[in-house]
Design brief:
The protein is built from three helices and no strands. By secondary structure, the protein is mainly α.
Length: 80
């Protein structure tokens, strides 16, 4: 994995830029640090979701579905 940093220029809506500025003032962190942390969180969440969807599709392709009784049990448990 490369440790070389890359530059990314991004246009922000004015309201988001203002929120970022407020966060900078409140935390004392730089805009770059806060932006990188936000992107890390977003990318991690998206990667998890995509992996979970792909796993579900793979199960479906293999015919691995819940039975009608299993689904009914879950719905009954949660009052649906």
């Amino acid at each position: 994995m490369s440790t070389v940093e890359k530059i990314l220029n991004v246009r922000l809506p004015a309201d988001l830029h203002g929120q970022l500025e407020q966060l900078v003032q409140a935390t004392g962190c730089t805009k770059s640090f806060l932006t990188v942390e936000a992107l890390k969180s977003y990318v991690s969440q998206e990667q998890w979701q995509i992996a979970d969807i792909q796993a579900g599709l793979q199960e479906a392709d293999q015919g691995d579905f819940a039975t009608v009784d299993e689904v009914s049990t879950v719905f009954a448990k949660y009052g649906h």
